[in-house]
Each structure stands twice: as C-alpha cells, then as structure tokens.
Amino acid sequence: MVRAPCCEKMGLKKGPWTPEEDQILVSYIQSNGHGNWRAIPKLAGLLRCGKSCRLRWTNYLRPDIKRGNFTREEEDSIIQLHEMLGNRWSAIAARLPGRTDNEIKNVWHTHLKKRLKNYQPPQNSKNNNDSKAPSTSQINLKNSHNFSNIQEDINGPRSGPNSPQRSSSEISTVTADSMAVTAVTNGDQTMVKQLDEMDSSENFIPEIDESFWTDNLSTADNSSFVMAGAHEELQVQFPFHAMKQESVEMAEAKLEDDMDFWYNVFIKSGDLLELPEF
DNA sequence: AATGCGCCCAACCGCCCGCTC
DNA sequence: AGAGCGGGCGGTTGGGCGCAT
Q1: Among residues A44, A43, A41, which one has the least CA distance to residue A14?
Q2: What is the distance in angstroms measured between the alpha-carbon CA of A246 and the sugar C1' of B21?
Q3: What is the spatial distance, in angstroms and rounded to an integer, between the CA atom of A3 and the C1' atom of C5?
Q4: Against a cut of 0.85, is the pTM above it?
Q5: Using CB atoms within 10 A of its CB, is residue A232 exposed (0-12), middle (13-18) or buried (19+)?
Q6: DSSP A203
Q7: Sheet strand arrangement including A179-185
Q8: Which of A70, A110, A150, A220 is a Cys-bridge partner for A258, taking CB atoms 3.0 to 4.6 Å apart?
C-alpha cells in the first residue's frame, strides 16, 4: 500500500505558525479536545494539514511543555537515557516531563554530541560503535542533582502550575555497599525497605517481568511495592508518570492521587533492561 | 556597514505501526 | 486477509539569528 503523500495539502499553508494560527488551534483544542487531527484544520478553520496541527500542538503549544534551556541535570539525563535507549527520542522524552522529543533531538544534535566529543573514553571500550559515549557503568545518576530534581518534581513547581502540591511527599534513600533502595509516596506512607532487612549477602535483583509492573504499580497497597537492590551497577530513576508517557496532570488524575511512585530500575552494565510500555 | 559563516530549532517529510472495516 | 486510515516516530531541512571578519 502506498500512502498518498501529504500533498493532498495542496493549497494548505506551510512554514512557521503565526500567533493567530496558534491562538485558533489552542482555543479549538481547549474547548473541543483533539479527536481526529485530520479533521481539526477544517473544524477549527485553519489552512494547515492535520499533521502540522498535531506537531505544532505537541511540540510547542501543549500547556505542560517546559520552556527554556535544558539544565545540566536534564542534559546528563538525556545522555544517560540515550546510552540506554539510543535514538528513541520519544522514549527519552517520556522520561523527561515537559520536554518534547523534537526538543531533545535538537539538544542532542546541537549540544550533547559536542559534549560527548570531549569525553575521552577509557581504552579498550568493549563498545566501539559509540566509543565517545560514556559507558553505562561510568555514570551514576544517583547523585544530589538528580535527587534534588526529584524532590522538586514532586513538590513543584516544575510539574506545572496545575499540579497539586505535595508538601508531605518525601524521598527516602538508603545506600550502602553500592546497594540502594528508594521509594516515594505521598503522605506518610513512604515505604523503604531497608537494606539491612534484605539479605545483602546476595545480590538482590528482583524478578522484573510484566507482572512485576502491573502487580506493583496498579495497586494502592504500597507495602506490596517491591523495591530492588542492585550491586555495583548503574541505577536509574524514573517517575511513574513519565513511564506512562503522559503528562503529570493526566497521570496524577488517573492515579487519583493514590500515590506517586518513583522507582529504581537497576541495570547491569551492558545488560540493559527494556522498560515496559504502558 | 556589509558580507560570510555557523549554529539553532521549528517545521516538514517519509516511513512505520496499529486499528478498523 | 488486506486495504485504508490516523497517529507517531526519527531524520532532515531551511530560515533566522548572532558573531566574526
């Protein structure tokens, strides 16, 4: 099947959007939502193709988009996520609330590739395909920057003006001997399985399969949420709402504020764990 | 002041995938 | 089963801008 090129948009406008067009699109979507992108231009009275409308909305007009320069922490996260996910920009964007795949792609090509160029990899890197990138085991996301970001994301303001404040949220971390456990919930139910409660003589790696996510993320029973330990490998933390690839507000509404889950994904160096899609 | 050059980023293009009929 | 369609994704483009000469 050969799809007709988007040249059915003959006579339709291309190029930069004007403020007037933006206004029309925003007000239409705000009052009607976007059901069928292809139908939107007609219904809204825009001389654009539906695809152009969708891109304009998702990359620029969406209210939950975080504008402005990327922080160093965000850039570090992108580098790390790119290491894990490759050029899957949408997957990376899903883990960086408020940032779009297009934006991340641009930042990667304009800034981050240069940054990595200056990085001298250790000799005999086993991965010669991208020898300029740091190896997984050389980056530890679990640093103060990331935790301050997490705290900020939960308590605002970066989650957006409409996000509920969670003054009682807290993050607990326990680290010892390169093992760590982290859990975040709202309210007083912070559940941290202390390392000393685990059998630290073993490398405690949870069995993570499809049922792990559904069993643990869909329940309001925090106590059943199993946090994982890891040995010397990298730890990556993702917000639950980001995993769901939805806006903070949407995800929070869906969860009905039952809880926030931040969880660790432990990845063996060179043995990447594919994150489940929700 | 004029010109050239490189960078940035919004927008586009083409392809793929999943759903519906 | 497969055609048709909408939506999503990654790669690419080109206009605007700032800086250097």
Answers
A1: A41
A2: 30
A3: 9
A4: no
A5: exposed
A6: -
A7: A170-176, A179-185, A262-267, A234-239
A8: A220
Tens of pLDDT along A34-68?
778 888 888 888 888 888 888 888 888 888 888 77
Q: Which of A278, A268, A187 is nearest to A239 (CA)?
A: A278
What is the average pLDDT score of chain A?
52
Please report, to the nearest 10 degrees, the dihedral formed by the alpha carbons of residues A185, A190, A196, A197 taken in order. -90
Instruction: Phi first, then psi: give them for residue A110, nearest 5 degrees.
Output: -95, -35
CA A202 from centroid of its chain's CA atoms: 31
Q: For the purposes of burial, counting CB atoms within 10 Å of the CB of A92, is it exposed (0-12), middle (13-18) or buried (19 or more)?
A: buried
Strand B nucleotides within 7 Å of a protein CB: 7-17
CA–C1' nearest nucleotide, residue A105: C10
Q: Which nucleotide is nearest to A37 (CA to C1')?
A: C6
Cβ-7 Å neighbors of strand B: A 3, 5-6, 9, 13-17, 48, 51-52, 55-56, 59-60, 102-103, 105-107, 109-111
Q: Per-residue pLDDT tens for A235-277?
A: 333 333 333 333 333 333 333 322 333 333 333 223 333 333 3
Tell me the three state secondary structure of residue A128.
coil
> Which nucleotide is closest, CA of A114 to its C1'?
B7
Confidence of residue A10 (pLDDT cuts 50, 70, 90): low
Q: How far apart are CA A208 and CA A213, in angstroms?
A: 8
